Amino acid sequence: MSTPRSLSISDVGFTEQFPTAWEVLNQLAERGLYSGVQLYVSYDAKPLASISCGVADANEPLTPSHRMLWLSSGKPLAAVLIGQLWEQRILQIDDPVCRWIPEFEQHGKGPITIRHLLTHTAGFRTVDTGWPDAPWKTVIEKICAAPLDSNWEIGKTAGYHLVTSWFILGEIVRRITGQAIPAAIEAWVLSKAGMGHTSQSLLPVGAGAMPVAPMYWRHQGEITPLDWHLPPRSEAISLGSNTWGPIADLGRFYETMLAAAAGLRPDFLTAPTAVALTSPQRVGEFDLTLQHKVDFGLGFIVCSNRYGADTVPYGFGTQCSPRGFGHGGSQSSVGFADPERKLVVAYAFNTMCGEGQHQRRAKQLNDALEADLAKILV
Prior knowledge:
Layout: H1 13-17, H2 19-30, E1 36-43, E2 46-57, E3 60-61, E4 68-69, H3 75-87, H4 97-100, H5 114-119, H6 136-145, H7 164-177, H8 181-190, E5 199-200, E6 216-219, E7 222-225, E8 243-245, H9 247-261, H10 271-278, E9 286-287, E10 292-293, E11 295-296, E12 301-302, E13 325-329, E14 333-338, E15 343-349, E16 351-352, H11 355-376
Parallel strand pairs: 6-16
Antiparallel strand pairs: 1-2, 1-15, 2-3, 4-8, 5-8, 6-7, 9-10, 11-12, 12-13, 13-14, 14-15
Helix pairs in contact: 2-11, 3-7, 3-8, 6-7, 9-10
């Protein structure tokens, strides 16, 4: 099989250890389904692969060091920060949001708790926040002034909140810590997990910063660049959609989560908190946004293969154990951990190719990785 001219690889050992995944990456590139991809795989916190394929842009190969946009794959970082505040008894998961943001109580939202935000059962999915053009204060004001979604039963009705609830979680963090959101994420999460090249938004940084890979959109067979790596969007704060970093950092995050759940990283999270965040908290509910039954922990998606391993969106592979947890990013990325297999997988495509096409692309890669890992982990 010939390698597409646009496809290169940063670690030739990957082609020998992961031949099935390498073939799939070639096939996807030949079909024009991405320009570049980063992939990280580890077993028992030992890296098996940390590679990049393809290009960042027309003039630059994609490297494992490029910072990529994680979109919703970055949501669990905020969930961990909330978990840290919880275990320190600064807040409680079942606190009403209006305890911390009194103005949030408007239009029937008073009963909504932090738990509801993290399990996507709060009920304000569709607010026009004005982000990224509106400043943070205006975004929060718009969400607080918004009504509940129609026919929503708080704590029961399930519907993935793309970004709205994560702004409110961020505002809770800001009011409690007194820190700006990027600084709070850095101090409480990124520095502790060794994620030195990841940041919340792309605020101006020094000359030594890692390069940034733009995002692309594939429409009607054509791949066109998006301007999301440029201001104002790149500098706008959004815990739900604007985290940037090399995908190996996301892998380190999940390695740290596995260590914490095993009681080995109490400086990051104690074991009870890590287990609570990543264990099923919302079970068996049909998600109105994802249009599928999907179980959630507290800010993490929990392996939902029992509802259809081949159909569950943003899944973690057909062989993932029921204890698996992670999160996906819209049409592009995923990171997950499987405690029973001590396995971490994270990857990010720099090309959004439509929801259905991405789900098929991700399943192909997940299946290929499983086939290769079955031979490696013997």
